[in-house]
Amino acid sequence: MRLPARRLLPATALTAASALLTGCFTGTEQTTDASGPGGKRIRVAMLQPPRSGLSPLSDDAFKLSRWSTAETLVELDEEGDARPALATEWRRSGRSWTFTLRDGVTFHDGTKLTPETVVESLTRAAGASPKPRILDGVDLTAKADGDRVTVTTATEDPLVPQRLSSPQLAILAAKAYRGKTVDPVGAGTGPFELTKVDGTSSATLDRYDGYWGGKAKSPGIDVTFVPDGTARAAALRSGEADIVEAIPVSQAAVLDQDLVTEVPMPRTNTLYLNTEKGAFKNPALRAAAREAVDAEAIVKGVYEGRADVAEGLLGPALPWAAGLRTPVEHTEAGDPAGRTVTIGTYTDRSEMPEVAAALQQQLQQAGFRVKLDVREYANIESDALAGRFDAFVLSRATVLDSGDPAAYLYSDFASDGTFNLSHLTDAGIDEALKKAAGTPAGDARRRAVVEAEAAVLAQDAAVPMLHERVIQGDAAAVVGAAHDPRERELVTADTYVK
């Protein structure tokens, strides 16, 4: 891939970044511990602060996974197939799956992994409100079966093992569930123990020497939450951080390219159109918006070529999708005739406001009048879910939870999906989604997934614009940092700083 020319940060940007770094990284000086290969703690700069007190029943679960502190019964390999984790094997009988637990696993509080603790974790997740996305449309129960755990669903579900790999179904010690909220501090099973959380500013993890998989190579992890992308990039440049996630494309070119890793990922930047009310209740105006979007211009102008123009909701991280697609028939576009629409998006990913501004210009050229509402994600998500915008721009992971896109499609486009930003209600789409969800893994399931994707695209409920790439920064002294397209791993037991 041809990299864009190097550019220097303006002096004002450098000054702002320095000020942010001074505040964000105070007290995160590198410390050493001779007991590890590198002997140094790993300093990590993360994009988004916790939204729900690091509850595993929220998207915060992926932080716990990326820090290797909370684990699941099952993991996914690079192909998205299930492999053993806290469970060593499983077998299916109709609607039930029986999992054999790994021997010798202890939680960070010293208690043992038992069928009862597994059942409690899964039961709390299944009964949560809202449910974890991975359980959208799934009625799941768990019970202890001797020294095993049996998971049963209301209907036959060929993806139960993949679902149980979701970080939102992490298994925690009983102490985590004693209050009204789930507290993961000192309750995981991973190589690092979460010992302290300082609100939305930082988190501390120490090596857990009783880890069933062997001693971690680093003595611990010091996490700082830095929503500002310029400050995160500057943290890598200045040596304030060892690993930096989600480097903005605007900053990637000014970094030492030897420190930057770029990987196509199953994340699509999508314009969700509100089909329930407002201008985009009209299918013809949704079609007009779709036709107005120039995704290639956004890729070149905002992402500096570090993204892929979308051909559908599923991108190059799922290469099988492109070969199965057929042309989609759309509604004929109507005339916007000065209709006013409001587009919402968030500041947590620095590209999003720029994407919204580009869309504003493109839609205005087509005849719409466009207002923007841009806030931090924590302050805008509830309004988006409540349908208070005509459109919403979101960077959405398409296989984040199960490694299979059917769950994402259901969550975002089913009538009862819990993340239905388009407020779409369509019996034909619901049927296509249910067919995809119930088809056994393999080629038939993939065809059903692509058919469901086509049904959504035909309604112009969402306009996929581009597929993002992971841009991660690792200091030269970092060894073994994970570069995970699904954003489940970052620091593992094998990661350390020389």
Describe the protein's architecture and organization.
It comes from Streptomyces viridochromogenes (strain DSM 40736 / JCM 4977 / BCRC 1201 / Tue 494). Pfam families: SBP_bac_5. This is Extracellular solute-binding protein family 5. Residues 1-16 form the signal peptide. InterPro entries: Peptide/Ni-bd, SBP_5, SBP_5_dom. By secondary structure, the chain is an alpha+beta fold. The chain folds into three domains: 11-22 and 36-69 and 181-258 and 470-497, D-Maltodextrin-Binding Protein, domain 2 (3-Layer(aba) Sandwich); 74-173, Dipeptide-binding Protein, Domain 1 (Dipeptide-binding Protein, domain 1), CATH 3.90.76.10; 265-469, Dipeptide-binding Protein, domain 3 (Roll), CATH 3.10.105. Helix content is 26%, strand content 22%. It contains 14 helices and 19 strands. It has helices spanning 11-24, 61-66, 115-126, 160-163, 229-238, 249-252, 283-292, 295-301, 320-324, 351-366, 381-385, 405-413, 427-438, 443-458; strands at 42-46, 74-76, 82-84, 87-93, 96-101, 140-145, 148-153, 192-198, 202-207, 220-225, 243-244, 260-273, 308-309, 340-346, 369-375, 391-397, 462-474, 478-479, 496-497. Strands 1, 8, 9, 10, 11, 12, 13, 14, 15, 16 and 17 form an eleven-stranded mixed beta sheet that branches. Strands 4-5-7-6 form a four-stranded antiparallel beta sheet, covered by helices on one side. A two-stranded antiparallel sheet has the order 2-3. Strand 2 and strand 3 form a beta hairpin. Helix 12 runs antiparallel to helix 13 (427-438). The two termini are 29 Å apart. Residues 1-20 have low confidence and may be disordered.
